[in-house]
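Tokenised fold entry reproduced for everyone:
>
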Amino acid sequence: MIALLTSMSFESEMLLSRLNKVRVAETAGRKIYRGKIAGMDVLLVNTGIGKINAAHSITAVVENFSVDKIINMGVGGAYPGSALGPGDVAFASKEISGDDGVITSNGWRDMKEIGIPVFQKRRKKYFNEFPLSTPSQAFFKVQDIREIKIRSGIFITVGSASGTYKRAKELEKRFDGICENMEGAAIAQVSAMYGIPMMEVRGISNIAGIRDKRSWKLKEASENSQKVVLNLLEFN
């Protein structure tokens, strides 16, 4: 069973239209669509925006369904130096919680500065970083043929989206990130807690720090992320 999570409903319209044998359930106030895509059992959930909604949704899902893999998807903003543009697609090699930490006289420091991990599993301590699964190189080659530009790199999850170029460059430099979002690290943390493999893929809707929505490509970014996930399900 694969759980597909998007923040908003427009980010999953194509997937929902491809879902066969659909059954609808409601768990903890969340509507969950269950069916099959490419012969695989799939759950589709719209979490709502932000880390709390995302964490609540994935917890409700894994507590009530037998989930083997999680794919978080949707749209995101690419950092200026990422070589990504609107309409491209990015996979996360790891998620970083970009807000959690402490502001010192020398600037921001992560949770290691406080000395308390956000959680610990056996001897493994998690502070701000959560490694994720990525597709095989063979899959990337298939996507290149289909003319969708894809990059893999570090994603940064924030509570406040970068609304200025200066802020976007600050986060990009600090974490060597390529893509910014508002849910991924929360889902990655819960996935790690339950020991469920997670993958994250986002279509690039805009360049982080540029708030001119006339240049954004939400529809194209959403559609391309869904096309890539559909291909991923078929590829596997």
